[in-house]
Design brief:
heterodimer; A: mainly beta; Immunoglobulin-like; 7-stranded mixed sheet; 53% strand; B: mainly beta; 6-stranded mixed sheet; 5-stranded antiparallel sheet; 11 strands; 59% strand
């Protein structure tokens, strides 16, 4: 398994600003992902964080709005840029350990944009 | 298009009243089906992975089963602490580890 931590756990931000969310895994993993979960909804994949190269974004998500970094095997960041109230959501990091196919999730970051 | 549908959307049970949650899926070659539990304000907690039709996994009061078209999460004699949203997700053989989530079933157990 993998234990995943995220910082911050929650934040309240002003419209037009940016927030960077950090994700740290306690062991080496192969894949890391970022999801968004809007209130009362299921999880939507934003992008796959690739180590040492540009992230792979899903349809409807773009790098300028959600830049992602993954400098090593256990750490990734997601930035939510030029925020609007529609970006209010829970952002979740997940990872797949070196052995197995199961994705494990962090506790999430609850973002509110005023 | 790969798709996951969960039913019911919400389920309220009395403590001790057993039931089942359904996850129907359409995928181009199933690599794995996953069940997660999510408590309010928290990230999904992994429960089970199922890989092939006929497979079953158990953990305490929960048992997950898999056919070629759907999976069931059976809850036997549930307790109030089993109240949560249960999420089903599938991974296609060609998906490069991406998984698709269903919309979840909100389970509430009354004492």
């Amino acid at each position: 398994s993998a234990v995943i931590s995220q910082k911050p756990s929650r934040d309240i931000c002003q419209r037009g600003t940016s927030l960077t969310i950090q994700c740290q895994v306690d062991s080496q993993v192969t894949m890391m992902f970022w999801y968004r979960q809007q209130p009362g909804q299921s999880l939507t994949l934003i992008a796959t964080a690739n180590q040492g190269s540009e992230a792979t974004y899903e349809s409807g998500f773009v790098i300028d709005k959600f830049p992602i970094s993954r400098p090593n095997l256990t750490f990734s960041t997601l930035t939510v840029s030029n925020m609007s109230p529609e970006d209010s959501s829970i952002y979740l990091c997940s990872a797949i350990p070196v052995v197995g196919d199961t994705q494990y999730f962090g506790p999430g970051t609850r973002l509110t944009v005023l | 298009e790969d798709q996951v549908t969960q039913s019911p959307e919400a389920l309220r049970l009395q403590e001790g009243e057993s039931s089942s949650l359904n996850c129907s899926y359409t995928v181009s070659g199933l690599r794995g089906l996953f069940w997660y539990r999510q408590d309010p304000g928290k990230g999904p907690e992994f429960l089970f992975t199922l890989y092939s039709a006929g497979e079953e996994k158990e953990k305490e009061r929960l048992k997950a089963t898999l056919t070629k078209k759907e999976s069931f999460l059976h809850i036997t004699a549930p307790k109030p602490e089993d109240s949560a949203t249960y999420l089903c997700a599938v991974q296609a053989a060609s998906s490069a580890s991406k998984i698709i989530f269903g919309s979840g079933t909100r389970l509430s157990i009354r004492p």
